[in-house]
Specification:
Blueprint (H helix, E strand, L loop, with lengths): L2 H23 L3 H18 L4 H8 L5 E4 L5 E4 L5 H26 L6 H26 L16 H11 L5 H25 L6 H19 L6 H17 L4 H10 L8 H17 L12 H15 L4 H25 L22 H26 L11 H10 L4 H10 L6 H40 L1
Antiparallel strand pairs: 1-2
């Protein structure tokens, strides 16, 4: 009788694990989790009984002080809080995986040849330039002017997730086009952050960082393929970037482009070792042990064979594969929880089109940049590329459908919120907080509208095109 509840509990646990595994494999799963975290963060930041605790947790210090022989102290990392730990350390891992993805696409994927890459890259450039110009036009000469980089980004997880939900309403070629565009967009966003949203540069530390990069390049040249050899230089590079005034997340991108993308062993070497260990496995088969197969020597052989097989996978691919679940289902949700929690004192935060002389309208600039600027920029740049015969229209695509898909490029979310957290730092503290919070609300509102607009247009255009057939 006692075994029945245990069996039922075990069966339920296995079923839940299988369901969770299936859920994680869905292309829209990350988007659902991020949206849930946004809602939770907004509730925590605005409910009277959780608001203070939410901000207190984010502002909790994680720095520690080491006492020096002279009686002084060295605090490390400087001004580190829970929020900065997420944005400056955990997000390094996010940018590392983004860098690995870009590197893979450039080497083997949709950006691997000029013919494949030119159209998405030109479209991405248009999708960055037009939102930035709209924002600058609205906020030129105001306190909000420095936030022009916020509406320039596309969130690949949400955009691709929506396309997967829409299914065969969108030609496969346009799905590939948007994915490649979002990857190129990520690369441009990384450059924008590195160039325009760092602090004052400490040239001495930057020079040391370049020496560390040179050392890592030498490791590549001597064909060093062991992960531990790159771990310590990566940490040193992060510290140097952190104190040099370049945003520390850029260390993740730099390391992604520097670690080896070729496997440690060649195919011929693997086949030779595989045959050798297989022969050994058969040779030890005559040794009988109570445990049966595999016996002790055979277990050793199998470990060696497994180790040899693992070294056939490049460090770049192995790291991307290992880190992606952690990034998608832990780091990004934590980022959303820490950064989407905007305390909204009044309804003016939702007044998108309100403009204050001298301050500007960060909300209008971001909203129009995402909802209007992104699809216009992507479509006009694509039109220019095709008319000049530099690029070609994706297979089976039409201009109305391309514009509808381009609307999904206005889903800024992750990168837009990240750039928002770096903007307006040279203003008074209260004004900085207000502009950043209004910017986050505008990013969430604009991304939601862009997603709904794109989905609606795709559905309508698909129906019209089916009727015409």
């Amino acid at each position: 009788m006692k075994l029945i509840p245990v069996y039922a509990w075990t069966k339920t646990t296995v079923h839940m694990e299988n369901s969770a595994r299936k859920f994680k494999k869905q292309p829209w799963a990350q988007g659902v989790i991020l949206l849930t975290c946004v809602v939770v963060a907004m509730l925590l930041a605005n409910l009277p009984w959780t608001r203070d605790a939410y901000h207190h947790i984010l502002e909790t210090s994680l720095s520690f002080t080491v006492t020096t022989p002279s009686g002084g102290g060295i605090t490390f990392p400087k001004d580190m809080t829970v929020e900065k730990f997420i944005n400056d350390i955990l997000m390094v891992i996010f940018f590392f995986t983004v860098g690995l993805e870009i590197k893979r696409e450039v080497a083997f994927g949709e950006l691997s040849s000029p013919k494949k890459a030119i159209m998405p890259i030109i479209a991405a450039m248009g999708g960055v330039a037009v939102p930035a110009l709209i924002y600058i036009f609205i906020n030129k000469g105001t306190a909000a002017a420095s936030g022009w980089g916020i509406p320039t980004a596309t969130d690949i997880a949400f955009a691709v997730g929506i396309l997967s939900i829409l299914g065969n309403k969108v030609p496969v070629s346009l799905k590939v086009f948007l994915t490649a565009l979002a990857i190129a967009d990520d690369l441009i966003a990384i450059l924008v952050v590195a160039i325009f949203y760092g602090g004052s540069i400490n040239l001495n530390l930057l020079l040391i960082a370049l020496l560390v990069v040179t050392f890592i390049v030498i490791l590549n040249l001597i064909h060093e393929k062991r992960p531990w050899a790159y771990l310590v230089p990566s940490i040193v590079l992060w510290v140097l970037f952190y104190y040099a005034g370049i945003h520390a997340t850029m260390a993740g991108v730099v390391m992604a482009f520097l670690i080896p993308s070729t496997p440690r062993y060649t195919k011929q070497y693997y086949y030779r070792k595989r045959d050798y260990w297989r022969h050994k496995l058969e040779e030890y088969d005559s040794i009988e042990e109570p445990g049966g197969f595999p016996n002790g020597p055979q277990r050793h052989v199998l470990r060696k064979l497994s180790q040899t097989s693992r070294n056939l996978i490049s460090m770049s691919y192995a790291q991307e594969h290992a880190l992606s679940p952690w990034v998608n289902f832990l780091i990004m949700p934590l980022f959303a929880l820490a950064n989407a929690g905007v305390t909204i004192p009044d309804v003016s935060y939702f007044n998108i089109f309100h403009f204050t002389p001298g301050v500007g309208s960060v909300s209008m600039g971001i909203f129009l940049g995402l909802v209007l600027g992104k699809p216009l920029g992507i479509t006009l740049a694509s039109l220019l590329a095709i008319k000049t015969k530099v690029g070609t229209m994706p297979d089976k695509a039409t201009w109305p459908m391309l514009f509808a898909v381009a609307c999904l490029g206005g889903i800024g979310f992750t990168m837009s919120i990240f750039v928002d957290t770096l903007s307006f730092g040279d203003l008074a503290a209260d004004l900085t907080t207000t502009l950043r919070d209004m910017g986050k609300v505008a990013v969430l509102t604009g991304s939601l509208c862009a997603g709904l607009l794109g989905s609606a247009l795709i559905t309508i255009i698909n129906k019209i095109q089916n009727v015409r057939k």
